[in-house]
UniProtKB/TrEMBL annotation:
<feature type="binding site">
    <location>
        <begin position="113"/>
        <end position="114"/>
    </location>
    <ligand>
        <name>substrate</name>
    </ligand>
</feature>
<feature type="domain" description="Molybdopterin cofactor biosynthesis C (MoaC)">
    <location>
        <begin position="15"/>
        <end position="150"/>
    </location>
</feature>
<feature type="binding site">
    <location>
        <begin position="75"/>
        <end position="77"/>
    </location>
    <ligand>
        <name>substrate</name>
    </ligand>
</feature>
<dbReference type="InterPro" id="IPR036522">
    <property type="entry name" value="MoaC_sf"/>
</dbReference>
<dbReference type="GO" id="GO:0061799">
    <property type="term" value="F:cyclic pyranopterin monophosphate synthase activity"/>
</dbReference>
<feature type="active site">
    <location>
        <position position="128"/>
    </location>
</feature>
<protein>
    <recommendedName>
        <fullName>Cyclic pyranopterin monophosphate synthase</fullName>
        <ecNumber>4.6.1.17</ecNumber>
    </recommendedName>
</protein>
<dbReference type="InterPro" id="IPR050105">
    <property type="entry name" value="MoCo_biosynth_MoaA/MoaC"/>
</dbReference>
<dbReference type="InterPro" id="IPR023045">
    <property type="entry name" value="MoaC"/>
</dbReference>
<dbReference type="Pfam" id="PF01967">
    <property type="entry name" value="MoaC"/>
</dbReference>
<comment type="pathway">
    <text>Cofactor biosynthesis; molybdopterin biosynthesis.</text>
</comment>
<dbReference type="InterPro" id="IPR047594">
    <property type="entry name" value="MoaC_bact/euk"/>
</dbReference>
<comment type="subunit">
    <text>Homohexamer; trimer of dimers.</text>
</comment>
<comment type="function">
    <text>Catalyzes the conversion of (8S)-3',8-cyclo-7,8-dihydroguanosine 5'-triphosphate to cyclic pyranopterin monophosphate (cPMP).</text>
</comment>
<comment type="similarity">
    <text>Belongs to the MoaC family.</text>
</comment>
<dbReference type="InterPro" id="IPR002820">
    <property type="entry name" value="Mopterin_CF_biosynth-C_dom"/>
</dbReference>
<keyword id="KW-0456">Lyase</keyword>
Amino acid sequence: MDKFTHLDENGRARMVDVSNKKSTDRLALATGKVFLNDKTYTMVKNQEIQKGDVLTVAKVAGIMAAKNTSNLIPMCHPINLTSVDIEFKMDDERKVIEIFARAMLNAKTGVEMEALTAVSVTALTIYDMCKAVQKDIEIGEIKLLRKTGGKSGDYKNESYIG
């Protein structure tokens, strides 16, 4: 079994010491989905939700979340992101909004948690802005699609085509 890096010699939680690691360019791409009914999906697409432009507000929320990940996830290192972007793919047939978050930096630690946090908060913001119209919105399939850089090397999820 691999050694858990977030545990000290006594088995207690700790933040990993990255002092001696080399800084490298790192990228992470994460995704998630928001499942809506016909009415809500159409209202989001046509910018008819009373709270405002759902996708623009959700994008800003996701970027802010990525920048604040170390304040939310106890063992995450505070990092200096160089880029965070969020894109949406609208699936008109299934009434699904697919979220893609890309985070980048040059550092001693990865950026996966920032991309995953961005997706999660983006999805939650869509939920918050639409909950007055639809109570049974579902959020799911949040996962890391790809990461590059660092000692452990590159990773690509089997479902990722890009």
